Amino acid sequence: MKFADNTKIYNRVDSVEGTARMRADLRNLAAWSKQWQMLFNAEKCKVVHLGYNNPKVNSVVDATQLQVVSEERDLGIIVSDDIK
Asked: pTM to 2 decimals?
């Protein structure tokens, strides 16, 4: 999902297949951003793991591991990993 200068990826990651889909989406997003010269600053990207069954795998964009946070502000709303 893209809104102004924000981009979000949502995936269900509760299995090996879900993990593979998320990693493929991140690779595809990085390739798209290079092709269209809209590069992402991976240092500013963050991951919030939602749900109790989330395996909390590491996410990487262009060899940079993304920072994991327990909450993040999104369009003025604070989204936390416990969904409160």
From this structure: 0.80
